[in-house]
Amino acid sequence: MAEKQKVFVDVDTQRDFLDVAGALHVPRSDEIRPNLRRLTQCAIERGFPIIATACAHTLDDEELQHFPPHCLVGTEGQSRIPETVVADAVVLGVDARLEGEPPRHLTLEKREYDVFSRPDATAIMARYNKDKPTFVVYGVATDYCVRAVVLGLLERRMDVAIVVDAIRAIDAAREPALLTEFARKGAMLTTTDHVCRAPKTVS
Ligand SMILES: [Zn+2]
User: Fold this and answer.
1) What is the pTM of this model?
2) CA of 46 to the centre of ligand 1 (A)
3) Cα(191) to centroid of ligand 1, in Å?
4) 182 has pLDDT over 60
5) Domain residue extents for the chain
6) CA-to-CA distance for 77 and 187, rounded, in angstroms?
7) How many Å lie between the centroid of ligand 1 and the Cα of residue 69?
8) Superfamily (CATH H level) for 6-196
9) Residue 72 and residue 57: Cα distance in Å, rounded?
10) 3-class secondary-structure state, position 88
11) Distance 139 CA to ligand 1 centre (A)
């Protein structure tokens, strides 16, 4: 039997969240950077699409009333960390719309932490869901952007796996309860090793 197709969802792995000096550093997120690199390389080598999400804020964004200013458009902090940069990614700005076939590597910019705040996000995810792949989700932060992606995909009846050793929460104490919530709602919990190990060859 052929291996089940995967679509990787790389959530907000931007400098302002993962760099220790970033504007909204997620505690201990530096620890997951080797796994983020491995996941990115594995997707590229095995031809899995990567849908990346990215905060792209301006100072008047409503989200910045609740969080310190971060990922401001045009700043270094808004860019992805080197571990998750994909050279040929098509970046779709907040007001841009996807034309033609979905690219293998797509970055969706957003002005709220929930990627589904983009009016076109549901339709875009549906286009990547044609062969019913597993959406393999990782990044930051577990308690905000990652949670919104996971629950949003599950609500849309898509198959979801969370890479538990490639996520970090702003409030680390909440992570066990969040993982329980994700699993209870139907997400699989997986690891970088499990996702990236070589596929079994069937003889
Ligand atoms: Zn944001």
Assistant:
1) 0.96
2) 30
3) 26
4) yes
5) 6-196
6) 31
7) 8
8) Isochorismatase-like (3.40.50.850)
9) 5
10) coil
11) 13
